[in-house]
Amino acid sequence: TIEFIVGPIENYEDQLYGYKTAHESFILIKDKAWSEKLEKYAAFLPGLQKALPCEPPYKNETPGVDSDMNVYDAIYYAGDCNAGSKTIAINLPNDEQVREDKGSRKLQLKNSMQAKFDKILVPISEVLIAEEQRKHVKFDAFFENTMFHEVAHGLGLGNTIDKSSTVREALKDAYTSIEESKADILGLWCVYQLNEMGEMGEKEMMDNFVTFMAGIFRSVRFGAASAHGKANMMRFYYFQETGAFERDATTGTYRVNFEKIKESMLSLSELVLKIQGDGDYETARKMIEEKGFIREELQKDLNRIGEAGIPRDIVFEQGAEILGIK
């Protein structure tokens, strides 16, 4: 099955209000075997919404149950998605009302994910993750964390609890950073919650926690100016403040604390869901201003990744010339 996606889709390039969208397109081939593994998860969306770690008013919407989740290999990127960091998963549509009424499509681009995992995430873990925890950096955990990031975009509220506006309108220029922060942390929570329900098979949650931590270092190298970058920094410093990890000053490596990262995951999820539900622009801006940038100690660690020759991202060789048809 070949999928073609095209249109003005994402608003990350509009740094003023985040209203304008940029054109992009993908050509994808469906991985039917991997897609079958994911079929059951779409049915859990309403249950995950009800179980969100927040007060009832902040989860008082029902996500569309017609959501489908499939896995693809990407064979062509063009436009916005091929500029800068490369997309590894897609969640469409972005329109809150359409998602609530009709559900959404969540597409995981497995070959792009695998390339980033093998060439970037694993080498980063060998530089910055404590040696005894590197065994927990696994592709399945990376895939799950990425997949449920997209699922989490459909959780929470599309409208403020007083129904005065959409969350997007209320948070204005802070919306995309807060939304990406929500998707990151709730995606991890989704894996945790489904694992607690016995729906993830034989799983060691520490794999997802350590892989998630390594993923922060991978993503933040794209820069803290982007919505994803700010989301990564807010989460990193929140984790630091709550003891979710410790940095060994001697080795310059990071060690995840299982119990504390679990507590941090729950409390940060609740905080972000409340900001969105309240349409609390001031708190959102304050969070971004206080935590949405790279501080000196972290920058030194990121410099070590560069010095090790680890690439920031993958680059595609694609098009007619590569295929030998020109």
Automatic annotation (TrEMBL):
UniProt cross-references to Pfam families, sorted A to Z: Peptidase_M49
Keywords, sorted A to Z: Hydrolase, Metal-binding
One GO MF term: dipeptidyl-peptidase activity
GO cellular component terms, A-Z: cytoplasm
Provenance organism: Mariniphaga anaerophila
Entry protein name: Zn-dependent hydrolase
